[in-house]
Amino acid sequence: MRTDTWTQAVRNQLALGRLLPLGGPEDGAWITEQAAVRALGHAAAEVPGVRLGALRVGPAPLEPASQPAVPPPASALSPGPLRIEAAFTASLGQPLPEAADQLRSALLHTASERLGLATATADLRISDLHESPDESPRAEEGARADVSRAATRAMRPAPEGAAARGSRPVTGTGPGQGPAGEIADVATGVPGVARLTAVLGSRPVRVDDHVDPPRRHVEIHFAVASGHHPLHVARAVRKAVAAAAAGDATGPVTVAVLITETWV
Fold this sequence. Notes:
- Strand 4 (82-91), helix 3 (96-115) and strand 5 (119-130) form a beta-alpha-beta unit.
- The protein has helices at 3-16, 33-44, 96-115, 137-153, 162-166, 179-188, 230-245; strands spanning 19-22, 29-32, 50-59, 82-91, 119-130, 193-196, 205-210, 215-224, 253-261.
- Helices cover 36% and strands 26% of the residues.
- Helix 2 packs across helix 3 (96-115).
């Protein structure tokens, strides 16, 4: 690998953040921290008087992690409880405990119910106070945009152009391209899959055949379409891909999925 290509791959990985487990050990699904933070930022934008700052999601300290049922993507976190850490500013016209409780509730609900993350806690830090915003529709819209941008900035951004290069749309590559092409076609046909994505410097579908013992492992990266639950789509993709990959496999098939984008 050329040095500049390797450097770009590292920068893309940093922009994605951690690879967070979705569901439980048996689900074989992960989501990028970047995608999760954006979804959480949209939820925070609905909390009155709150403006979200830095936000991270990672393992909950002192909580046990489990061994995943399938080989995980490189550097992915093991399934286990997660912790949300967020800084925010609040309006002077609202009691701070009330604002914090509303924000914590919104973040935990979105993480567990709308994304499928096993989130245990949300640790919040007040970073500043601001004047009560004008209640006009234009001011409210601007405040929500500020929160959304802050959530996006919580992750280290990729260099200009990196996102476009790392998340290009990929459709099925056809049966003539072998197992990976067939699997790509099957995955893109699952309801809720917006497109396959290549964000870690590799193809969106990776098929590894092992000889001793004989087995096949498939890893697939994709974006989830608006209105679909990420964990439900991940389970459906794994089921469809496992069936497709078993056709010419000489042993058991395992499937791991990574969601790189989602709109909830």
